[in-house]
Specification:
mainly alpha, 6 helices, globular
Length: 133
């Protein structure tokens, strides 16, 4: 029987990356009723950086590509988002609508410390022919 901890680790990585990628798609491409880049214009610089990190960083996390460094960067991005955009609206995440950035920050911190969990491009690059899941 496969290790349930490894399976849930991989599932968390894939789902978190997929959900995170959608936030970037909202910013860059207007997916799901998001803002998107205005025709003939551009997003504010921080929003553009966030959109790129979220779209392509989320994809990298989902695939398990350079998981540790990408997760570390994304964890920092979400910490900055929380303190810059949410904390001024109240101390607690429930008050300031910062639950998602707080959770994403700590989920990505987990991956920065614990890696991809196997079944990933990183695992293939390490030479693991069979997924560890």
């Amino acid at each position: 029987m496969r290790n349930a901890g490894q399976i849930t680790h991989v599932l968390l990585r894939i789902v978190a990356g997929f959900l995170f990628m959608q936030h970037g798609g909202q910013k860059l491409f207007g997916w799901y009723g998001g803002i998107g880049i205005p025709e003939g214009g551009s997003l504010p610089p921080l929003m553009m950086v966030a959109g790129v990190l979220e779209t392509f960083g989320g994809l990298a996390i989902m695939l398990g590509l350079f998981t540790r460094p990408v997760a570390f960067i994304l964890s920092g991005e979400m910490a900055v988002a929380y303190f810059k955009a949410h904390l001024p609206n109240g101390l607690l995440p429930l008050q300031n609508h910062g639950e998602a950035p707080a959770l994403f920050s700590f989920i990505f911190l987990f991956f920065a410390g614990n890696g991809d969990g196997g079944f990933s491009i990183d695992a293939m690059l390490r030479g693991e022919r069979k997924p560890r899941v």
